[in-house]
Amino acid sequence: MSEPTNEPGQRTGRRWNQGLRGVLWVCGVALAIHVIPLFLPRNMPEQELAIARATENVEGRLRFLVPLKHNDKATAADLRTAAELLREGAPAEAHDLALEAERRDPNALETQLLLARICDRERMTRCVEQSLGKAQKLAPTDPRAELLRADLSEEKGDIEGATEALSRAYSRAPGDPLVGVRYGRLLSRMGRPEDALKVFTSLEGKVPAARLLVEQGLVLTKEGRSREAVRLLQQAVQKDPKLAEGHFQLGIAWFQLGNEDAAEEALRQADRLDISDTRALATLCTLQVKAGRLEGARQTRTDLERRFPQRMDAIREQCRLP
């Protein structure tokens, strides 16, 4: 009797079955990882929070998070996390959880900051002010309450209020580069260039020199002092030739001076240094249109559309051809 032979079709079928079993096994393990926690006794806040994070809709999250208010094992940090997960979709329930966090730890600055954000979401102005006031009393030297006040003011279009809040934050943390840079930018936006430049000067040694020169150049560009801006921005890219933002701002400053060729060279260098950012070529396209270089603008926009086909509508909005 002849021995059975392994036909190619049989071998292929066995491999296919083995592959299918492997896929099903992986899917089964993944399903178990997600489903098993639902059947475990959930008396630990960490479990409820983990499930809530994996739940996309707010209604599903409420089921797991609201009971934490009455869970003795939940810490103030747990309750803040739960409130943060509900802040956008269910601010009233988030508010209750944050108040319980405050009850369990009255001295936590983070709770007051969270309450202020939730109250702002609920459009409860008095509650926002009360929470920020408590935050300032809890940590008089901490700038975060004033930074949040600046955020909320800026979102409402109150640039003057935001600037005042940032002034107080800067006085509490004069050496903080993030606070200082933001404050300087807002001063420039408010039409106070000399004050902005003083703030940036105070940050020397705390912010990379090239980055600081770019910030100073931006102030001068906004004020129409393009020749001074070009000088500073050239220094910036000399100090850090790979600083894309430096080349980008230099291109804009050169265009303001009427040097279109230098502007294009700087913007193309910015694009080469950061090919994921559309700003450099989109700005070049806009400047080419302004200068009447329509053929160059069409080519620049075509290059952008080819590189970023998924952003074609935005690109055409950024660079409108006549």
UniProtKB/TrEMBL annotation:
Annotated keywords: Membrane, Repeat, TPR repeat, Transmembrane, Transmembrane helix
InterPro entries listed in its UniProt record: CellSynth/LPSAsmb/PSIAsmb, TPR-like_helical_dom_sf, TPR_rpt
UniProt cross-references to SMART domains, sorted A to Z: TPR
Gene3D superfamilies: Tetratricopeptide repeat domain
Transmembrane regions listed in the UniProt entry: 20-40
Protein origin, superkingdom: Bacteria
Protein name, as recorded: Tetratricopeptide repeat protein
Naturally occurring in which organism (per UniProt): Corallococcus caeni
